[in-house]
Specification:
Three copies of one chain form a homotrimer. The first copy, chain A, is of the alpha/beta class and 344 residues long. In chain A, 17% of the residues lie in helices and 28% in strands. Among the domains of chain A are: 86 residues, MurE/MurF, N-terminal domain (Udp-n-acetylmuramoylalanyl-d-glutamate--2,6- Diaminopimelate Ligase, Chain: A, domain 1, 3-Layer(aba) Sandwich); 148 residues, Hexapeptide repeat proteins (UDP N-Acetylglucosamine Acyltransferase, domain 1, 3 Solenoid). The mean pLDDT of chain A is 96.
Chain lengths: 344, 344, 344
Amino acid sequence: MHQKTVQEISDHVGGRIIGDAAVVIESAATLDSAGPGQVTFLSNPKYAPRVQTTQATAVLVSKKVETNACQIIVEDPYYAFMQAVVLLHGHRQHPQTGISKQASVAGSAKIGKNCNIHAFAVVSENTVIGDNCHIYPGVFVGPHVTIGDDCVLYPNAVIYDGCRIGHRVIVQSNASVGQDGFGFATHKGEHHKIPQIGIVILEDDVEIGAGCVVERGTLDNTLIGKGSKLGDSVAIGHGTKIGPHCLLVPQAGVAGSAELGHHCVLGGQVGVVGHIKVGNMVKVGAKAGVINDVPDGATIVGTPAIDANKARRAYALIETLPEIRQKLRALDKQVQRLAGDQET
Amino acid sequence: MHQKTVQEISDHVGGRIIGDAAVVIESAATLDSAGPGQVTFLSNPKYAPRVQTTQATAVLVSKKVETNACQIIVEDPYYAFMQAVVLLHGHRQHPQTGISKQASVAGSAKIGKNCNIHAFAVVSENTVIGDNCHIYPGVFVGPHVTIGDDCVLYPNAVIYDGCRIGHRVIVQSNASVGQDGFGFATHKGEHHKIPQIGIVILEDDVEIGAGCVVERGTLDNTLIGKGSKLGDSVAIGHGTKIGPHCLLVPQAGVAGSAELGHHCVLGGQVGVVGHIKVGNMVKVGAKAGVINDVPDGATIVGTPAIDANKARRAYALIETLPEIRQKLRALDKQVQRLAGDQET
Amino acid sequence: MHQKTVQEISDHVGGRIIGDAAVVIESAATLDSAGPGQVTFLSNPKYAPRVQTTQATAVLVSKKVETNACQIIVEDPYYAFMQAVVLLHGHRQHPQTGISKQASVAGSAKIGKNCNIHAFAVVSENTVIGDNCHIYPGVFVGPHVTIGDDCVLYPNAVIYDGCRIGHRVIVQSNASVGQDGFGFATHKGEHHKIPQIGIVILEDDVEIGAGCVVERGTLDNTLIGKGSKLGDSVAIGHGTKIGPHCLLVPQAGVAGSAELGHHCVLGGQVGVVGHIKVGNMVKVGAKAGVINDVPDGATIVGTPAIDANKARRAYALIETLPEIRQKLRALDKQVQRLAGDQET
């Protein structure tokens, strides 16, 4: 941790100060828990009342508010807060091990400058690894893999043969990238493996969460576009294309040969069936099941997933089904009585 | 396996015998499969008829039943059965390897008495590990981690830097504890990682299933309370608090900053959205999607999750929707005819 | 890659050629992306129009079609295509490392002929491994495990003590087989582990996807039947029996003591509750929740899962619930008016 004055933080995030610029900040905290010596932020207007009562020394806000805390006015308080957290706490410092004698690095592997390859990591034949990479213990990098600069592969991550990884890519622990796609030709009741000759491409700035499983393509490649982030335990099918700058929340799954555009957000446990096209900037609510193509900009929820406004009203009415049925029966009885009366 | 007489088992579980106390039991089995030389149990009254026909030599029951088997009467037959299984079969015996020369243990790490640290396990700088721990091959224990006594970390489990683990904690294979939370500040279409400076705390007697993914907190810590058990492939978000003595069945997920009280049970594939409060002793049916705060003691099912009694009737009626619509149309037609007749 | 003539491919798959048998094929591709020098296939009749315009040099079809490509007529084009992909591209070539000096192989382990046991793999006491097996880095094979011939365990796969694996079994990276089942006896608010003394049996030709979690049985064994294939991140409960030749798509889960017959297909994210029987040749649509026994041959979808034809109509009507309710109210109002009129 690095102490900073409000002035230093404000300068760092490009803000404007209301209050004492010289006061010292030691750490960052959430609005609810922040106390003296801490900086916090207000992003969601519904929490504005909490800023009035916060014990934080400083708060990042988008406009002047009622509060005793020192205010730093910025355009995007959440982004500024991220910058402040980096300034005060920094990103994880990786151990400097160099290339450990307990690692297994193939003779034909090309390793860039300033890499740390830890004990019990394996770098296979004909791999190419860029500069400043961190390969943690238990990582397996298969043959013919290419990895760019400034990547971090956390413990026990596995990259299968031939996959291509860009710059500044992070793969968290126990994730698998490039295992065989789930592809079998069923003949006379037996399932025969189709060689999966495609690879996985992770473009620059991708992050793959812990326990993720990203299948290689059968014939075409599987692609995770630039800047996209996969939460933990996300499953990606063979030949699937995830566009740039998507966010896939933990336990989401996208089946084979599906395509997502750019800036899509899939909530937790969402499922997308194979061979469909999800447009750009689509938002899918947690646990939804997407079974059809989705137009650009749509927000959908439910299983099957439909327009969110429609769905929120509709799915909430499921619990009224017993009443609906009862009402329908009562009405039917009444109508039959009326009809009988009228006939007579 | 250790042979025991019915008397010895009964003494061990604090029971009362009806039948021959001297007969020998060799192993434990389920009610359906138990045969001669085996002990079984009756917990769910609906299986009572099977006790009459069981081939088991002995059966643990809560009250006298009709059966040829020797009966051991106990208050809680399932708990007594667990004790009998331990008595007859024991828990897993861990290999005694000491600290393997093929392990990588940092000079600054403090290791308690009687620990087994296997080949290819990594214990990083400034970790503290208590007595009688088993660290299996491929485990990674990050810097500044603290682990209590009598813990077992199974192969390829990963504990990230700074996490704190209590006594008697079990982490199954390929589980990840303390990886970065899914936290990004999106600015001008790009997602920027927020340093995740919180840790994960696993309190005493916690078990983490194989393939689980437990994120570290962004600013606050992620907490798994004393005695809680996570099944396989459970995902826990950053800053989430799971109270003590909860059971989370495999593939359940709890998003960031959600809170569960004590003694909650989440069924398989349940999803809990972020930032909500689930009370104490709440039961959530398999596959449910919990999107709102839940009061103490509630039992809920479905997506969105609602009161179980209501939900079971309501969700089962979804399949009648075609009939409901048809009936409604027929009724409408009839009413319009009636209205027309009345007018004339 | 191995170049082949159309004649050679046709001979290999038992086909009949329409066109130039001497033309050379270099690789296989999908119908959409195939170009000159490539072979593709038509399996789903709805894509027939694309065969007319394909740039592929050859196409595997079940009957003569309109196309400029050379045609190879076969009974089962998808199966023939699989054979052609194997002929042209082959299955993955595994590195020949022999038994690495950096592996840890117990003295009492019996290793068959021609095995490759990579660096940092662990083979524990009293294991038996057949011929021609590939044990990749970071794999843990526990004590008393038996593995047949021609198996492949990919990096960081974990096989717990005592499990039995047949011939030609593949376990992908970071999968766990045989960890403790989720079995606890709850007594006075605390959950006590029941020793899980069953094992996991993987029969011949089984494949276990990356990140899968297959629990050992409590008392009975967990079984994955001959030829069954589990996609990535599939969870199998303790004592569960999966019949032969099943396909479980990624992120599916089957709870403890459930039974599946032969040739079942579970879609992605399907959940099957414990202690139920799913018949033979049952198909379960993606994301379905199966809560009751299922008869042979059924196709079911939805949560709760019901007959697919019924379900597709019913679940699609959820979005009309607001209209249904509105219509019902309007009708009710009208009927009450009619009833009032009639009374007067």
